[in-house]
Amino acid sequence: MPSELKTAHIKPLLKKIALDPDDLKNYRPVKVVERIVSARLHTYLQESDLHTTFQSAYKPNHSVESALTRVQNDLLHAMDNQEVTVLVLLDLSAAFDTMEHRVLLDRLNQDYGISGSALAWFAPYLSDRTQSVQIGGVSSSTKVLSCGVPQGSVLGPQLFSLYTGPLAKIISRHGVNFHGYADDNQLYMSAKPVQGDVDAAVTRIQDCVAEIRGWMRTNFLKLNDSKTEVIVISSKAQSKKLSVNSVDVGGVQVAPTEKVRDLGVVFDKTLSLISTSGTFPPSDVTSQRRPQSNLCMHSSHLDWICATRYCTDYHNGSCTDCRRFKTLLLGLSLEPGSLTT
87 has which bridge partners? Predict the structure, then answer.
């Protein structure tokens, strides 16, 4: 790895326009020098079946849409079965910046079978990196990066996904459902609307989160407690039968909220989708029952969910967007059309 490609020039950009420009934590550094091609790693992981099944980031044919589709499908199935679901949204703090290089190299070798010259290439790729900050044409002094992966690169996010691969085994061991997108993790469990059953589900999630926190401490990562959210999702009738006061997250009691923002989409406690983000279709899309109408609006995954049931061109295969969504569903091992209410 040429040394000149190991220096990053950081141009501070606000994460959101409305944020306070005087608060440094509101900036997202963007690397403009280095772009690493990761096609071979993608191919190796896919051919060796080493991708984490329920991680939708940095994989071909997966996206925010596939993550949301899977979770929403499970939530709707639980509601159809007259069950209550406790959903916990976890987020990591500066996840890409704190990864320990030695841990990552060992994980690539032991968990993913990367060895020889391929593994030897990653060591110099990660080490001896520097970065500086540029504002108005003026650069700060250069600092050496002793941990983390290059932000702004293609390979960096992939390596983060592999670094956190063991989380899937931890969560599965507790019998908790989950789906992840990058450093955002969605943990959820469903139970019959009996207080004892719901309390047991909450306890299982709490035990799972406690083990996740322990694993993260060992691996130099940290949960962002301020962004942890909890919501209890059910029909209005089932919600009256029980109460969940709080979920213990690292010693902090997090109370359920009326709605949460999950990967940019707002879920409320009855999954009505009335409160939505600007890119998510309005709730009346799901209530339209017109089998002879073409409702394929080509804007988001919910449009395609509706289209698989109501699009007149879906079953004869002439709708390109519906074919794309069907491919996505097959990748998630779901039946097209099973995601509608």
Answer: 188, 231
Tokens of 45: 């992981």
Per-residue pLDDT of 121-157, as tens digits, reads 888 888 888 878 888 888 888 888 888 887 667 788 8
- Mean pLDDT score across all residues of the chain: 76
**Which residues does residue 31 pair with via DSSP β-bridges, in sequence order?**
10
SS3 percent helix, strand, coil of the chain, rounded to 5, is: 40, 20, 45
Residues near 332 by Cβ (< 8 Å), separated by ≥ 6? Answer: 66, 69, 70
Do the Cβ atoms of 339 and 325 come closer than 8 Å? no
Distance of CA 143 to the CA centre of its chain: 31
Residues 221, 92 contacting (CB under 8 angstroms) = yes
3-class secondary structure, 135 = strand
Taking only the tens place, the pLDDT of each residue in 300-316 is: 444 444 444 444 454 55
